[in-house]
Amino acid sequence: MSGLGVRAGERVVLVWGLPSSLEALKELAQSVEAAGSGVRVSLENVDRLLLSSHAPSSCDLVLSGLVPGSALIHSSEILAEIARIMKPGGRLILAEPVTTTGNDSKLKTAGKLLSALKLSGLVDVSEVKNEPLNPEETASVKEVTGYQGNSLSRVQMSASKPNFEVGSSTQLKLSFGKKATQSEKPALDPNAAKMWTLSANDIDDDDVDLLDSDALLDAEDLRKPDPASLKATSCGDGAGQKKKACKNCSCGLAEELEQESKSSKKNIKKDTQPKSACGSCYLGDAFRCASCPYMGMPAFKPGEKILLQENQLNDA
User: Fold this and answer.
1) Angle made by CA atoms 45, 51, 55, in degrees to the nearest 5
2) Quick check: 69 and 19 in contact, CB under 8 A?
3) pTM, whole model, 2 decimals?
4) Where are the alpha helices (DSSP H) in the chain?
5) Is the peptide bond before 97 cis (omega within 30 degrees of 0)?
6) What angle in degrees, to the nearest 10, is found between the helix axes of 110-119 and 76-85?
7) pLDDT tens column, 138-176
8) What 3-state class would DSSP assign to 185?
């Protein structure tokens, strides 16, 4: 059992499953016990492992699927339970039949088995060996799993549990003290300082040619543009077309149409004001007709603008 790494005084859990023979299981358990003094071996059937009473972090080594003739398939629940009962730093050695095609729902490939071990929380996962099955083992695996292909092999992998418990915490050593500041500034390169330094002699008005900004404008630039030329081509007064400003009008047509609309509303309101038929409405009720719209209102000066409410306008 030197290849399995069994050490003296360790607690070993041996996981087995059908169709392994009891004689082969007994022989493997005895060889593990004889590997070192004080080695304690616990036998667990894979179908009863989830119901076992193993305490968390209680075993040093787990051997699973190593019984000759075994066709043990490790589910994610079985791998998680194995990781639970292993001590921090504990080891796992397992063997499982795999397929190279990956088309079967029960059998994994070697790569998928390696990923499943990592996902269960184990580290240092590596493939120890991969060997083909003999005809008796192939027939046993096909009987248990219902696999009909011919790409079967047995892979043996090793893994270990991290050296800490799940949910453990530790204090981080952080230093929030003030960092020592440099007492002296680093020396500047004289050439670099000279390149970025300007002296009074570097800027001489007689040697510098300045451009007059007004000289950049010609007579055409100073001429006030015609408002009609600022309108877009679609804003013209085409024959049979109605003036309509663009959505984002910037030529002034929108303001012009808005002003025309306000003027037309004022003219309509002015035209709706009633006109005197007798010319005596301004004198008062004593001189007004019976149907006069100004009836009840005080006298006013001729030409004075009087606004009537709509409820005072009645047909004569």
Assistant:
1) 100
2) yes
3) 0.52
4) 22-33, 76-85, 110-119, 135-145, 190-195, 219-222, 227-230, 253-272
5) no
6) 50
7) 888 888 878 887 888 889 999 999 998 877 787 887 777
8) coil
